[in-house]
Amino acid sequence: MLRRKLAESLTARIFLMTTLILLCAGGITFGFIAWATPITYTAVLSDDLARQVNALVDELADTTFENCGPVLDAFLRDSGADAMLVGPDGQIADTGSQFAIQPVFEDSGAVTSPGYTVGRGSAVTYATEAGDNGDAVTVTTSQQATITADVRFADQDSLYTLYVTPRIEAENLAVQALCQMAPLLLLVLLTFSLLSALAYSRYITRPIVRLSGIAGKMAKLDFNWTCPEQRRDEIGKLGRSLNEMSHRLSAALTELEAANRSLLGEVERERELDRQRMEFFSAASHELKTPITILKGQITGMLEGVDVYRDRDKYLLRSLQVTGRMEKLIREMLAISRMESGATPAEQEPVDLSALLERQINLDAELFHQHGQRLVSDLTPGIIVTGAPSLLGKAVGNLLSNAALYSPEGAEIRVWCGLIAGSPSLTVENTGAQIGEEALPHLFEAFYREEVSRNRSTGGSGLGLYLVRMILKRHGATCTIENTEDGVRATARFPA
């Protein structure tokens, strides 16, 4: 609102200033016209009369003196001027013209006075004064520009002088007409000045108001606009500069927002990793605390010879088993730590997935035999993936051992390797077991076990599938676990 008021105030100031300038310029112009019109009109009449006099002189040169009266009358009617012809003797010649100035004679034929009559009531007065020799004539006019010309007639060799004076009535009428038109001219001038000032002020302030609005949008970080000014003056240059600045600021802001989002994403990922690490170490502490407590109790009982612990061989064997589980857990934790830190060497080479599965099946054959389980394999030869053989072997071994640990006696373990939609894949399916639907999304979390009691006799440490997911993720592969009609199937798919 304040910006709009300022813009409107600027428009009003420009409007008033332009109006005053135009009025002053119009007044000066009007005064100059009023002053120059009579002068210009007289000059125009004089120039036109001079051309007519020249034409008259040419015509009189072909006319005799006796016939010059009608020619002079025609000239005086057309020009509206006064004229007289002075002869070689300095006296006004009697041309017989009805409108030209003629000498006045007495009845005897002599000149009786120096005055002369003026045709058609002219206000011009002519007078003659005789000199000492009686032949000098002085012709005077009343503030008029008299034109003189030498005239030679066709029948005479003597040189006559023609005096022609314009009338002043026409000039006075022009001035009177101008004075009568003055109020109307002033009104027209005022109206024209107001309209011109209004148009000019809007022409000047409209782009300024538009640029002010654009600057307000830029202050609010709104760059979805383009200044349409195509002018070549400073305002147009300012508009184009604002366009360029807007584009650069918009690009910089977009880059900044992208960097900020990326940074926020990194921060969130770091926080999630820290949270996962804390959960991992908390779970690891809990997993290690239980076997350590068991091991400490057994050793203390054996040392003190308490009741059943007197059978040291039996409880030494149990302590060794607990130590083995702790060792396995620690190895898995170290492997996970090395993989998370990127310290594990990732030697990339072509790996025959089918051959890898076959070797791992042979290594775990005794485990399946101890659990009374039957293994069925369907391996397509020549399924090649790129990766680290040691890591892939550990992932496949965890899937096979997981299937053996969570399947009942007499279950069937089915292993398949081949292509799924052009991608190298493998599946490990164990029958006779099902996983709760609420537990499926959490199976790849560290230390997660569906069996709430976490009894070692019914499962492992809860790190096997977590380690499988980490290894496959490093190889660009995915792993899913789903229930089937008669069991559970784990599927690993590698990139094509």
Radius of gyration: 63 Å
Order of strands across the widest beta sheet?
Answer: 5-7-8-10-9
Q: Oligomer, anyone?
A: single chain
Strand content: 5-15%
Name the helix and strand elements from N-terminus to C-terminus, one letter apiece: HHEEEHHHEHHEEHEEHEE
Number of helices: 9
Taking the sheet with the most strands, its summary is: 5 strands, mixed
Gap from first CA to last CA:
64 Å
Number of separate strands: 10
The SS-based structural class is alpha+beta
Q: If you average the pLDDT, what whole number results?
A: 75
Spans of at least 5 consecutive residues whose pLDDT stays below 50 are 106-143, 452-458
What does the overall shape look like?
Answer: rod-shaped
Tell me roughly what share of residues is in helical segments: 40-55%
Give your account of this protein's structure:
About 9% of the residues have low confidence. The strands form three sheets. The protein has a five-stranded mixed sheet with strand order 5-7-8-10-9. Strands 1-3-2 form a three-stranded antiparallel sheet, with helices on one face. α1 runs antiparallel to α3. The chain is of the alpha+beta class. It contains nine helices and ten strands.
Structure summarized in a few sentences:
By secondary structure, the chain is an alpha+beta fold. The chain is 54% helix and 12% strand.
Topology of helices and strands:
Layout: H1 2-61, H2 68-79, E1 82-86, E2 147-151, E3 160-165, H3 169-219, H4 234-304, H5 312-341, E4 349-352, H6 353-363, H7 365-370, E5 374-379, E6 384-387, H8 389-405, E7 412-420, E8 423-431, H9 464-474, E9 478-483, E10 487-493
Parallel strand pairs: 5-7
Antiparallel strand pairs: 1-3, 2-3, 4-6, 7-8, 8-10, 9-10
